[in-house]
Write a structure and sequence with these properties.
binds adenosine monophosphate, 5 strands, HIT family, subunit A, alpha+beta, 5-stranded antiparallel beta sheet, single chain, 32% helix, 3 helices
Length: 130
């Protein structure tokens, strides 16, 4: 049974896509802690990030870095926070969260409710910086 993230990669479930290459995929988190909150995943299905092969994990971080640099340029924020939870979706992923304070990356915070036009606009802004 493919994970929900594999279904996104395969286009079976819609997403607000940020970037893709042969091994990795990035898209906006549908329940964002902040505008621009992005998930980076390997296309290979592995439940836990730190079970990934060393080279894949290293390359995934380089892929994530490009996105974080683009986020920082188009979303007003002090830093792009990086978080790994994996409690909900059993497909390795890195959260990239534009933040101004530590409180912005508290996963107990209420999630933003954005209209699909806002998601599209944010995704478009980040994509144009890549
Ligand atoms: P966790 O596994 O605890 O790191 O959380 C999984 C994250 O995936 C949560 O922040 C969800 O909002 C996000 N998520 C779940 N389903 C989707 C989806 N279809 N599109 C975008 N983000 C999703």
């Amino acid at each position: 049974m493919p994970t929900i993230f594999t279904k996104i990669v395969n286009g079976e479930i819609p997403c607000y896509k940020i970037a893709e290459d042969d091994r990795f995929f990035a898209f906006l988190d549908i329940n964002p802690l902040a505008k621009g909150h992005t998930l980076v995943i390997p296309k290979q299905e592995t439940d836990y990030l730190f079970d990934l092969d060393d080279q894949l994990l290293a390359d995934m971080n380089v892929f994530a870095k490009k996105i974080a640099v683009a986020q920082k340029k188009v979303i007003p924020c002090k830093r792009v926070g990086v978080a790994v939870l994996g409690l909900e979706v059993p497909h390795a992923h890195i959260h990239l969260i534009p933040m101004n304070s530590e409180a912005d990356v508290n996963f107990s915070n209420p999630k933003l409710k954005l209209a699909s036009e806002e998601f599209e606009e944010i995704a478009g802004l980040i994509r144009t910086e890549l």
